[in-house]
Structure formats: C-alpha cells, structure tokens
Amino acid sequence: MSMDRHDKEKEMASVLLSALYADVISPPQFRDGFVMLLESADDLAVDILDAVDILALFIARAVVDEILPPAFLTRAQKTLPESSKGYQVLHTAEKSYLSAPHHAELLERRWGGSTHVTVEEMKKKIADLLREYVESGDTFEACRCIRELGVSFFHHEVVKRALVLAMEIQTAEPLMLKLLNEAAEEGLISSSQMVKGFARLAESLDDLALDIPSAKTLFQSIVPKAISEGWLDASFTKSACEDGEAQNEDKRLRQYKKEVVTIIHEYFLSDDIPELIRSLEDLRLPEFNPIFLKKLITLALDRKNREKEMASVLLSALHIEIFSTEDIVNGFVMLLESAEDTALDILDASNELALFLARAVIDDVLVPLNLEEIASKSPQNCSGSETVRMARSLINARHAGERLLRCWGGGTGWAVEDAKDKIMKLLEEYESGGVVAEACQCIRDFGMPFFNHEVVKKALVMAMEKKNDRMLDLLQVCFDEGLITINQMTKGFTRVKDGLDDLALDIPNAKDKFSFYMDYAQKKGWLLPSFGASVVEALPAAAAF
What we know:
Blueprint: H1 7-20, H2 27-39, H3 41-47, H4 51-64, H5 71-78, H6 85-98, H7 103-108, H8 119-136, H9 139-149, H10 155-168, H11 173-185, H12 191-203, H13 205-211, H14 215-229, H15 235-270, H16 273-283, H17 289-301, H18 305-321, H19 325-337, H20 339-345, H21 349-362, H22 368-377, H23 383-396, H24 400-405, H25 416-431, H26 436-446, H27 452-466, H28 470-480, H29 486-498, H30 500-506, H31 510-524, H32 529-536
Helix pairs in contact: 4-6, 5-6, 8-9, 8-10, 10-11, 10-12, 15-16, 15-17, 17-18, 17-19, 19-22, 19-23, 21-23, 22-23, 25-26, 25-27, 27-28, 27-29
C-alpha cells in the first residue's frame, strides 16, 4: 500500500518493519514476504509505473536496517527468471543503491526521514553511550541513557553492540554482561529483544571474525553464561539450531538440483534408464523425487521431440521402480505452479505440459482421477488449470492412446504398444512349446527391465485363458535369474488384480485362478510382503465365485 503513496508513508512503512522485526515477524517470515513481493513485481508494475525502483529502495533499506541479510539478494536472484521484474528489482537494489558511496545515509534520508531519529543516528548514539559506560562503569547511568533513547523496539541493537564491544575489548566483557543482566532484570530490554540481538550477532559472526579472529569462540562462551544467569531465553539455542538445519536443507537441495541436472543430461545422451535409476538411488534422497520430475520435464520442454519422448518413457520406468504416484502428482503440481514462468522462455509450454500429463495417463503412470487431484492442488485461475483441462481433452479424443504414444514421434526409445506386441508374441511362442532359456533371452534382449511387469501380467492372463500353468515355470526361472525383480513381479500381479472384474467376463474362474497364482507366488517369494494384505479385502468373493 505504501508503494502507491507519498514518501512519508514509505518512510513510516520502513520504520514499522524495523519495529516488527523478530518481536512480531520472524526473520524467515520477512524473507518470505519480500520474496512474495519480488514474485508479484510484474503485476505491481502494471499499476505502479516506478514499482521496480520503489521496491528496490525498500529492499536496500531493509538491508541497511539489518532486516534482510546482504546474501538475500544473491539467493533470491537464483529463484527468479532473469527476464522478470523481480530480478530487475534485485539488480537495481544491489547496483544502484547498495553499491553507492555512503549508501546507508542516503537510503535513510531517501524519503525525507521520519519524525524519528534515523537508524544510523540511533546506532551512533548507542555506540557512544556504551563506550562512555566502559569508561565510567556506571550501570545505573547506562540504563537511564538506554531508557531515554525511547526506542524499545530497537533495543536489540544495544544488545548486539554491547556484545561486539565485549569481544573487541575483552576487559570490557564483565561490564557489558553486567549491563545486559541489569537491563533484563529491570525489564528495560525485553526477552525477545535480547534474543533478537544475540541472533543478529550470530548471523554476522563470519564477517566479524575477519576483524576479531576469536569472535566465534567468545560468542559461544557468552551464550551459556547468559542462559545460566537467566537473562537470555534458552529458546535461543533451539532457534539457532533450527536456522542451521534450514540452511543445511537449502544446501542439500541446491546440491541435489545440481547433481540431477547432470544425471538428466547424461540420460539424454545415453538413453540408459537402468543407469539413471542407479544414480538416483545412490543420491538417497527420495523426498526430492517431485523436484527431479519437475527438472526432467522442464529440461525436456526446451529440447527436441526425442528428449520429450525419452522423458515420458523415463517417467514410466521411475514410477515402476522408485517413484510413488504421490511423487508424480506432486512433481506435476510443482510444474503447473511455475507454468507461467516457464511460458516466458518456452512459448508452447502449456500445450507441451498437457501432452506430458495426458501421456502419463496413457502410460498408466497416472490415472484420470489423479488429474483432478493435480488440478485441486494447483493455484486457482492460473495457466496450470487450463493445462489440466487440455490434458483431459487429449485423453478423451478418439484414438487418444495411439496418438499420444506417437505425439513426439516415438523418439529413439520404445513405444508401449510395440513392446506389448513383442511380449505377446514371445509368450505365445513359449506357450506353444518354446524353450524357457530362449524366452528368458528374448526378455533380456528387450532391454526394458522397467517394463517387465507387462511380461508378468500377460503371462498370468494367458495362463488363465489357455488353462496352461506352464507360464508359472517361466516366471520362476525369470525370478531365479534376477531377470524379473520382486518389484516388477508385484507390479504385474497388482495390475492383474486391478483388472479381475473385467477378466471375469471372459474367464469365469479368473478370481479363483488368480488366488491360486497369488498363493503360489507368495510361497515362492516372488511378491512383496505388503501385497498379500492389499488383496485380502479386494478378493472377498473369490472363493465363492
């Protein structure tokens, strides 16, 4: 609101932010709020002509007032497209305002100041009174001077400056700790202001260590003293740990994104799905699976049809091997949330995303109901909702399956229908008297271990239709040789279970046969232990059918 008003209101807004910092609004909330402003800068510029410049001033002022750390600019730039207004805001704040000589003083007076003393002037007053205290040692007089400043919301600066002075002049440490203790006991410096002062110093320890090499050691020795004497809340150590954990999480995520980009680029060159799956498993970060999906499709969108086809094929493999349906859904939600930004660089992004969604349904990676879930999780009134509607239209069109399987020309990879035809011919040949070893070699030659669940499914259905349990011998050999994994075997049995009602129309005893096959497979150890529990309720009428 202040952006569209006079300088007086802009100055008041900056002063208010400083007062709210830490007492009411936490540092992470401040950072998130400024990020939201940056993300909406394009919209703000429509109504406020000089929005970029004004927002740049607010951010620069927040850095000067130590509400935002200088590193905020660099971190935020990495999350914004270079063509966005938000990116321009950060560039302007850094190059035009924070790099200027005497920038702190200029920014403090940019909007004509306020009815209050400027931050820089207040900092000078605090520094002067603390140095006088070091010389006099009069704690009562020092507390009176702090009270007369009349800036209770800025007492965190007193705490920070006192601690820095204690580190700079080690003989002054007992005096400074005594002052802070007295101020806390009198209620002059509130608990939240005390914690805020310690927190601000903790954030700047790396820079402080350049001038005071022992700064970190000294700080670590002061904190337990302050907590044991009761003038620093013990929650400070907990919040410091949480901030450290958050930074470590950010670092892990950045490192993960860097590594998966390399893995995806290598896949586009090699077309080696098993190697990619091994690389992902080596990272041991399954909680970031949705981020991998987003990165995979984003990179594919900006490439040729070959890579788009490879990305769709890979999704099918990942869903079978290591990705849950929830991972896939959340990955597409993340894609749709950033769809408008993606469209700035890739003009046809919305149509291409719709194809990826529709293709995922055709490949049994998602079911149509998942599209409803994705739509409900996506932001309302955004291009993502239109993308989901477009995907539904593609799926409902005539000959949708065939068209979507060929939407990118099939690429250099495999087409689902072709693979199914080859598997059917292989099993028919084996059923009519073929050799197990030869059938296993054919399955191996397909080079599609992530699609072996189709072998299991078709083998079970054929055994039911032909009343020939010889198919179980083939599955046993495939399992013993490690050709079909327990995951693939379970996936195949699950797909047959899901289609039992339809199968029963053509094969009356389908449920009885499936129960028999399932018991056999469990005895042989083909299936995951969780599979049995999932089908107990699904087949209540199997025995009585």
